[in-house]
Structures are given as structure tokens and as C-alpha cells.
Amino acid sequence: MHSVGRRQFMRHAVSSLGVASAFAMPWTIAAGTAVGSWDETVDPETADLIFRSKAPRNAEPKLGKLAESWVTPTTQFYIRSHGANPQIIPDQFRVSVAGLVEKPLELSVQQLIERFPAAACTCTVSCAGLRRYEFSKVKPVGGVQWEEGPIGNAVWSGVRLSDVLKSAGVKASARHVWFDGADEVRDGGHSFPFGGSVPLSKVMEDNADMPGVLLATHMNGQPLKADHGFPLRAIVPGYIGARSVKWLRRIVVSEAQSPNHFVADAYKIVRTGTPQEWDEAAPIYRYPVNAALCSSVTQEGRILLKGYALPSGDKNCSINRVEISTDSGNFWVEAALGDETGDYCWRLWSAAVTIADAAADVCIRATDSLGNTMPETVTWNPKGYLYNAWHRVPAKKLLN
Amino acid sequence: MHSVGRRQFMRHAVSSLGVASAFAMPWTIAAGTAVGSWDETVDPETADLIFRSKAPRNAEPKLGKLAESWVTPTTQFYIRSHGANPQIIPDQFRVSVAGLVEKPLELSVQQLIERFPAAACTCTVSCAGLRRYEFSKVKPVGGVQWEEGPIGNAVWSGVRLSDVLKSAGVKASARHVWFDGADEVRDGGHSFPFGGSVPLSKVMEDNADMPGVLLATHMNGQPLKADHGFPLRAIVPGYIGARSVKWLRRIVVSEAQSPNHFVADAYKIVRTGTPQEWDEAAPIYRYPVNAALCSSVTQEGRILLKGYALPSGDKNCSINRVEISTDSGNFWVEAALGDETGDYCWRLWSAAVTIADAAADVCIRATDSLGNTMPETVTWNPKGYLYNAWHRVPAKKLLN
Asked: Does A340 reside within a domain?
């Protein structure tokens, strides 16, 4: 294995981040310094978020701000945690690669960056619980009562997981890759890391612009914030956020999916929730097509609506059409789509409408290039995942 | 572990089989005698079946005979194999129990029967490819072109897998149980046993009359025939037949589902069939509600129809209603349901109808006690599994 040295490291930082400030790498700070916190102190930069809980930290942006830019500012990006932010000592942090590999690895973040080519992508990360509160209106479900905010689009940079695995030498029987975080989740008297799992075929689905899975050190040109997984996280374009494990400490190549609670037990769609059903069901991987109305402004007698639309998390899939109805879903008009678009990325939209019936609902539905359309209704499920029915907002809310 | 000895063994055989002939146990034949065959010679008792292939052996009964009795005679029971019948030397045959257990076991069939309480159940086994040829009419799919025959209801007896696992001592982290057969499947230059996997929660879902999983030595009161898995097979009530592994030689308790090809790669519903989709999808476990018209006889100006209806493979679920339409699905009448019924069992039905329009289709649809109803159409899938749309037969076929 060759070491590319400081020079290529700097080129990496420049090419993938495009900003000089990227050189302020927190993992070069003094030995033994702890980053991250176990308390409920909120990073002042995230003070503008709506905190659904502070221990663990779960927050989403105010909806009105979400559709203002295609790349979501880090300060407006939702935070989803299952335990306290782990105490990270940057110069001691290592990520291990084990399981069905010829040569297990244990690497610092600096080594990762020095040994492997720089890679970056822009993609949307979306929580499986996005819009969960709409399920709860039908029948209450537990978990964070997310509204339309736990979704965001960011520029991620780091190295390709495929390059790391190729270097470790994946054995022929390998089929899945597990991720464990450095956090500690407490559940039913046990304590364990948050974990994820992705098929190896997804990891290896690289092309020039889009890694199958990125090992990200940076978000929007800056080293990851503690709340977003400093110093290293997985980014899995097209998959629910839960697979993009933060504070990534352990990578295991296996024949089977991870037995971690958040793969084997949670993040599944079941009907009634018997143990047998949980064990039979597949983990959720890709997110479905979705959309939301984020803001409205009255302008010259019309109402200007803005929002986001997310294509399903499939390869080569983008938003084709966003439709608006101001009469509860009878008549639909097409919204204008933003110019910025990309694989595994949301697309912003806008529409100027008039509202004739204040008692009606304004409805939003998106359709992607694979023909997936948001349905009128979604079957309730016990954990409240993947709500993607038409986004409905009472017209009178927009007429104030 | 106590050995119950010859006396309890005989009581077992009597109570569970109820027939004297059960004592002719093939595994008491002389040492070294091979049972089963690698050639294409068909057991003369199965000569009445329609063979879709002879190597491996895949056969289904003539449909007209299938609804004649609630318990399907063994000679009329479909045969599904992925490799040649293995060469079994009865006195050398052992089944192993390994993986996440305190005490691994290796037992002869005789030991299984002596050590564990006798158990029996009547349940329907149904191939995931039942009615596959109807998918092929839409767009050809590979695999055996099964019609309505690869389904049957039998009395199975042996011992409960739960008792065996309790004796081995299941570790706390166990979640799934793997089954490997003694057969040898050749695929892509590799050779491996046919394998299955069931959640541990399903195995442990025992009640007095219905084991979660049965380790069956007998079918309809006779030792298993070679084609049905002699000397030992799994029977998993409610699950597709592929999980009821024949010639059962290896049981592994694990955190994860079996990596066997027939769990990890085949027997899944996918949309297009990319490697990523296969790896993401759950294995098929339970079969869906289904039904078929099996025979028709003209009687005093009316046509007497008979068939079977299968409830979905859920716990406490039975057939509630079978409806017949003689006008392609506009007007429906209820069929009479057979008296014989049971958990995880099909139900026979009959209806006397008149047909006004020879150009119409006669349609059959069943509804189970959990409210599952056969849909009018089913989305095509690349491997042609779980076809359960209304069974349609051109009326003119019944008017001859």
C-alpha cells in the first residue's frame, strides 16, 4: 500500500472541498483532547433548529428555511441521534475493517485520506421517520415526532468505501457490509453502538461522480460537526439516513446483514409487529419518492409556494414532475422545477397559485423518472416509517 | 438427556401415526444400504404425476384429482427438487445441530424419535412458484412452469424442532435457524446443498396442536418417501415449501438468516433483479391467500365446480369465503366450504353454477379470516413467485 503523502493529501482537500478552511482539521489538535459531549449542551450554531429531544439530540430545521437553497447549510441540517454524541479523542480515533477480508485494517482518518483517492458527492440524506407525525394523526406511533424537516442535501467528501475494501481484499463469500458507530445506545438494559448494514453490491456501485458509499470526513466543505458524526461517517446515497452511520468506528464485511438492533429489529416496515414479523421483514434501505411544501408568500394576489421533492433512492433516478392541487386533489397543475438536480438529490420546486376554496387542502405530489409517484394514502405501520402520501396543507393556513 | 427407549418409541409411532405399518422403518434396514437415486428413474407410485422435469425431479398432480380429498395422498403430492435425490445410507444418517447453542448435537433419526416427544400436524405445503405459468403468459420467467398443482395438504409427524433446540440450549443472541439438505445442487460451477432459513420466533411458536417447525420423519402415516425427503425433513407450517427443507442434515442456529443461495439469492420478490435489489430484499417466508378451480362436472344442467383455497400463512388464519364469478368478475356468488379445516391448511370448496356467457371467464377468489383477498392482478416479478390473482378459466373449457 502506498502512502501518498502530504502533497496528495492537500490536493485531496482542495479538490474535494474547494475551500481553504478545510485545512483546519480538528484531528490535528493536541493529543488527548476530547471532542463531542455527553451533556445536553446544544452547539450554538444549531440553535435555529427545532429540538424534538436533547438527550439524545434530535432536531429538524424550521420548514420555512428548508427550501431556500439546494445545498442545505450545515446549521440548517437535521440532527438524528440514538445515543449521546460519543467522546472522540481525534488522535486516538481509528476505524477498523474486519470480517471477510484478506487483510484487516485499522486506520486513522489521516491514513484514510492519505492512502485513498479523494472522493466527494452531493446527495440528500433523509430520515426514515420523515413526516412520522402524519402517521400519528391516524394512530399514535412512538419515536421522534418528525415533521417535514429531517431531510437535507449536502456536499460530502472523504474516500470511497469501495477503495478501502479493495485494499483490504474482500473474500468471495462476502455479501453485506456492517457499520458500527462509536456512540452508545441504551435500550432494554443493554448498551451497544448504533449500527447499519448495506449490501456489498451497493458499496461497489461506484461511478466517477457518485460513490456507492462514501466514508465522509467533511460536510459542505468543513470537517464534520460532532452532531453529524465527527470525525468519520458513512454516507449511503439513496438509502434512509439510518444507514449513513455517524462516528463510524467499525466496518465488518460479512455474508449476512448486520445483527445490530437498528438493522435486525428497527427500521423495518411491518404490519402488526409480532416478533416473527420483525424477523421476517427486510431492513429498509432506499427511501421512497417524497415531497413537501415548505413556504408560502402572497405576491400580487397569488401565493408563491416553494418546497422540495425527493426521487426514490434508486440509481439513475431524478424528479420528473411536481404537481400542486388547490382543491384537495381533484385538479393538478405542474410546479416549476429548480435547475439544480443530481442522482440521489432532492429537487426544489416553486409554483404560484390562487386558492379559490379556503376549506380545501393544498396537495403536493411528486413523480420521479422511474415512474414512482407519491400515493394519496399510505398504510400505517407500527414504527411510522416512510410516510410519503401527498403532502396536504389546509388552504386557510396559506391565506393568512 | 434421557433416553426413552423402545417402549416410548413405539408409543410415539402409534400415537402420531395411528397405523401399524409405521413400524416398517426404512432406517432399520441393513447397514450400508443406499436409499434414493441419482438417476431419472421415477418411483412407480408417482407415475400418475405430471413431470415437469426428471433431473431434478419436479412433478405436480393432474389438477382434476387435487380437490378430491382434504388430505392429499402421497402419490398425488407434488415433488419439488433442486438437485438429484441424495444417496442416503439410513444407519449412517445423522442430523447436526450447531451454531449458537450451548451443546451441539448430532443425532440419528432413531435418537431424535427416542429423545423427544412425538408431535404431528396437518398442514399444507405450497410451492412459491405455484401458478408461475400465469406470470409467463405476461412475460416469460425461468424456472419450473408450475400450474395449479404444486400444493398439497398432508399429515406430518416427527418431533418439534423447538424441543430439539431447547435440549441443545439456544444462546441469547440467536435469531434465525438454518436448514441444509443432504442434496447437492449444481449452479454456476458450484455445488452446495439446498438450504432454508426460518426466524427462531417462528420455531418457538408452538402450541399443543401445531409445532412452529416440525422435524418430520413421516408423511401421511408412512416414513417419508425419497422424493419427499427421507429420512428427515423440516415442515414449516404457513411458509412456502422451500423452507421445509428435505433430507435435512444440518441445523444451524444463528444471529442472521442463512447465506444459502436459496435464502440469500432466490425465493425473493424483486422488481427488476439487480444484485443490489436481491441483497436488499427479504426472503419470502409466508405464502399468500390463494385458490384454484380443480375440476368441473356437468350435473342436471348445472356445472359442479370443485377446488381448493389456501389462507395466507399467518397464525390463526383460515379460509372465510370463496367466491365464484361466471361473468369475468362482475357478479360473484359464494361457494360451499368443506368441513375440514385447520390452521395452515387449505380448505376445499364446491359450487354449482350455470354459465350464461361462454365467452366469459369463470373466476375464483378466496378471502381469509384476516381479511386477505386474492387480487384481480398481481405485479409480475422476475422469478415468478407468489402468483395469487383471481383464478380465471375460460367458461368454454367448462362447457364441453
From this structure: yes
A93, A189: one domain: yes
> Residue A269 domain-assigned?
yes
* B173 CA: distance to closest CA in chain A (Å): 9
Among residues B223, B242, B237, B244, the alpha carbon closest in space to that of B346 is found at B237
Q: Identify any residues that bridge with B223 across adjacent strands, giving them in sequence order.
A: B218
Tell me what ipTM this predicted complex has. 0.85
Inter-chain CB proximity A202 and B276 less than 8 Å: yes
In this structure, the answer to whether residues B300 and B265 fall within a common structural domain is no
Integer Cα distance of B391 and A199 in angstroms: 37
Q: A259 and A217 share a domain?
A: yes
Determine, yes or no, domain membership for A285. no
The verdict on B197 and B334 lying in the same domain is no
Give the best residue of B203, B205, B280 to mutate against chain A (max A CB count within 10 A): B280
Domain shared by B109 and B127, yes or no: yes
Secondary structure letter of residue B306 according to DSSP: E
Using alpha carbons only, give the angle A254, B166, B248 rounded to the nearest 5 degrees: 60
Identify which of B100, B95, B134, B131 has the alpha carbon closest to the alpha carbon of residue B111: B95
Residue B379 lies in a domain: yes
Q: CA-based Rg of chain A, rounded to a whole angstrom?
A: 21
pLDDT at A206: 78
End-to-end CA distance of chain A, in Å?
64
Q: Cβ(A288)–Cβ(A386) under 8 Å?
A: yes
B274 φψ region: left (φ > 0), alpha (ψ -120 to 50), beta (else): beta
More confident call, B132 vs A40 = B132
Q: Are residues B275 and B141 in the same domain?
A: yes
For the stretch B242-273, pLDDT in tens is: 999 999 999 999 999 999 999 999 999 999 88
Region B209-229 average pLDDT: 96
> Do residues B225 and B342 share a domain?
no
Given this model, what pLDDT does residue A26 score? 37
- Boundary (domain end) residue, out of B280, B307, B336: B280
Is A274 in the B-facing interface, judged by CB distances under 8 Å?
Answer: yes
Q: Out of A255, A264, A279, whose CB is closest to B259?
A: A255
CATH of the domain at B117: 3.90.420.10
CA distance, residue B175 to nearest chain A CA (Å)? 7
DSSP β-ladder status, B50-54 and B195-199? unpaired
- Domain total of chain B: 2
Which range marks the domain in which residue A295 is found?
Answer: 290-398
For residue A71, give the C-alpha cell: 445545498
The residue written with cell numbers 456536499 in the block is A155
Take residue A354 and report the three cell numbers written for it. 390562487
Mean residue pLDDT of chain A comes to 90
Of B230, B256, B280, the last residue of a domain is B280
Residue A371 sits in a domain whose CATH number is 2.60.40.650
Residue A262 and residue A326 share a domain: no
Confidence label for B30 from pLDDT (cuts 50, 70 and 90): very low
Q: What is the pLDDT of residues B140-189, one digit of tens each?
A: 999 999 999 999 999 999 999 999 999 999 999 999 999 999 999 988 78
Residues in chain A, pLDDT under 50: 1-37
Q: Does A202 touch chain B if contact means CB atoms closer than 8 Å?
A: yes
